[in-house]
Design goal:
single chain; alpha+beta; five-stranded antiparallel β-sheet; four-stranded antiparallel β-sheet; 9 strands; 18% helix; globular
């Protein structure tokens, strides 16, 4: 569910990015745009609707606007990026200190290719701009071990210009029981390409990858218990390609 101001911010962002990024973000620009959404809908929620993960829907709103304008502005609109606020949360009691901890991170993915260039690898797109958390900082602060942090080869959509590659991060739980929460998008429907370009890779969440007990986890996960030594891998979407390969 999206609140009204978040809807406005997303619409203004998308149109400014496509039409002219140099336009000042002020009332003169905003007054030229009319936004309509029924009260009580997913795009204009009212209390007591839950709105904590509204950024996921905002990402999709931006994708829809970009896609709708692509036929009339083909030289300006890029293919779909990862279009997600891929987030996971580990929590538990740190065995080193006996104190409760919460580790939350949103992880970037591939950007869509443009009509003139490949998409960027491993970046945040649209309405999020959170920073990358260095492995060293994560491991110093939390009882977790980062076994892998890499670009996902082949996740960028094929095309004259390739989509950006998604990211893959694998974390192991050290010496304690933890709870996992995760919210992924683009796990079923891949980011679209444009002008004959291929789709980007899809998101995935895997428990104990490469082990005999490996299991795919749902893209929306709440309160999943992790045992000491369990490993979790998140794969973020790649960007769509632009133009025929």
């Amino acid at each position: 569910n999206v609140v009204w101001l978040a809807l406005l911010a997303t619409v203004y962002y998308a149109l400014k990015a496509i039409l002219d990024p140099t336009i000042p973000a002020n009332g003169g620009f905003y007054r030229a745009i009319e936004v309509a959404a029924p009260e009580g809908s997913i795009l204009n929620a009212r209390p007591p609707a839950a709105v904590g993960w509204r950024t996921q829907t905002c990402q999709r709103i931006a994708d829809v606007i970009f896609g709708a304008l692509a036929p009339v502005l083909p030289d300006r609109v890029p293919a779909a990026g990862n279009g997600a606020n891929t987030a996971w949360v580990f929590s538990g009691v740190d065995p080193r200190t006996g104190r409760y901890y919460v580790y939350l991170e949103t992880i970037g993915g591939g950007a869509g290719a443009t009509p003139a260039a490949d998409g960027l690898d491993g970046v945040q797109v649209h309405i999020t701009n959170t920073s990358n958390l260095p492995v060293e900082c994560l491991e110093m602060e939390y009882p977790l071990l980062v076994e892998e942090y890499a670009l996902v080869e082949g996740s960028g959509g094929a095309g004259r210009f390739r989509g950006g590659r998604g990211l893959q991060r694998t974390i192991a739980v050290l010496g304690h029981e933890a709870q996992l929460l995760a919210t992924l998008e683009r796990a079923e429907i891949a980011p679209w390409g444009l002008a004959g370009g291929g789709p980007g890779g899809r998101a995935a969440l895997v428990l104990n990858p490469e082990a005999p007990t490996a299991a795919a986890l749902p893209s929306k996960l709440w309160g999943h218990t992790l045992r000491p030594g369990d490993r979790v891998r998140v794969v973020t979407p790649g960007g769509g390609g632009h133009g025929g390969p």
